[in-house]
Amino acid sequence: MSRVTVHDLAAEAGVSLATVDRVLNRRPGVRQATIDRVEAAMARLDYRRDLAAANLAKKRRYPIRFILPEGDNPFMHSLEAEALAFQRQAEATRVDVTIVKVPAFDADRLADALDSVGPGDAIGVVAVATESPRARAAIDDLAERGVPVVTLVSDIPGSRRIHYSGIDNAAAGRTAGTLLGRFLGARTGKVALVAGSMLLRDHVERRFGFEQVLRAEFPHLEMLPLIEGRDDGVVVEELLRPILASTPDLVGIYCLAAGSEGVIVALKDAGRQHEITVIAHDLTDHARRALLDGTFDAIINQDGGHEVRSAIRVLKARADGLPIIPGQERIRIDIFMRDNLP
Q1: In a shared domain, residues 226 and 262
Q2: pLDDT tens digits for 101-131?
Q3: 183 with 269, same domain?
Q4: How confident is the model at residue 2 (pLDDT cuts 50, 70, 90)?
Q5: I want to staple 189 with a disulfide (CB 3.0 to 4.6 A). Which of 142, 248, 251, 312 is the partner?
């Protein structure tokens, strides 16, 4: 069976080729009744438009703006590298990436960056979200101006963002709690929690999931007050040193954010790197080494490259009026120990 063409579509709908073109490309000046007639003809003929060919012929570009946090967080640097990889392939993907940096955990600066995006600047925005009323309002305002937003790694679910590209962070926290509890077995003692900032929903949700499991399944483990290391290894080290010195019955650490290099330094300086069970996040170079030498016991990981590619796919699909494939955009939780390092 030969492929249905726009000529067939125009004949079936009883309209001109120019009208079909306007309907397919969503141009103004076509009555709704005519649009309905063309779309009905598309359904009858099972017309499948070759969007890639059409966009190539029109030389269409997909400008996408990423808003990422500044700082020394290795995982955030990996997100930037993945986004820039698309820019290097711009001729093949037609995706033009621009990156804007804002201070980490600064919701007002994030909102300023969102507010600065105009309807003609990008087909969409990808942002690592710091939750606040102003940041939520900025996302909603962008949606009102016709610019969709995808949140990356950390979400603001109450906003009008169209998609969240990241792991289920509560499930990640529960996974960490289960791993820690099972690794420790019948050992009793205290557990330290190291976060970046409770302004980030991903950190809040990881803490919630972790505490939920420990309280329900491992009540013999006592959780110490959470410390916030601002995703900074030096700060984490400074905050953890006195805890290690004053808590001889510390048996576990859950580092649910960046800054885990500070955990490594503090543990080794205290000489306790092989007596305390540690679950951390993100398979960075230093985390890999810590797994290999036994300082860390397990890493909860998310594929930053998958998250970036997913966000771009979602925005391109939105721009082309196509549905997304939910299974393709689901970001899985990976668990790494030294035995299964990639």
Answers
A1: yes
A2: 999 999 999 999 999 999 889 999 999 999 9
A3: yes
A4: low
A5: 251
247-259 as b/e, with b when 16 or more CB fall inside 10 Å?
eeebbbbbbbbbb
179 in the same domain as 155: no
* Residue 182 to residue 203: CA distance in whole angstroms: 22
| Range(s) of the domain holding residue 251 | 169-301
Please indicate, yes or no, whether residues 296 and 183 belong to a single structural domain of this protein: yes
Contact 117, 142 (CB under 8 A): yes
Tell me how long the chain is.
Answer: 342
Answer whether 310's CB lies under 8 Å from 166's CB.
Answer: no
Give the C-alpha separation, 293 to 60, whole Å: 50
Q: Could you write out the DSSP letters of every residue in 212-269?
A: HHHHHH-TTEEEPPPEE-TT-HHHHHHHHHHHHHH-TTEEEEEE-SS-HHHHHHHHHH
pLDDT in tens, 52-67: 555 554 567 899 999 9
Which residue from 48, 42, 53 is spatially nearest to 19, judged by alpha carbons? 42
- Please state the pTM of the whole predicted model: 0.84
Q: Look at residue 338 and tell me if it is in a domain.
A: no
CATH no. for residue 229?
3.40.50.2300
pLDDT computed for residue 117 by the predictor = 97
Contact 220, 214 (CB under 8 A): no
- For the chain, what is the domain count? 3
Residues 102 and 159 in one domain: yes
pLDDT 10s digits, 279-318 = 999 999 999 999 999 999 999 999 999 999 999 999 999 9
Is residue 223, in this structure, part of any structural domain at all? Answer: yes
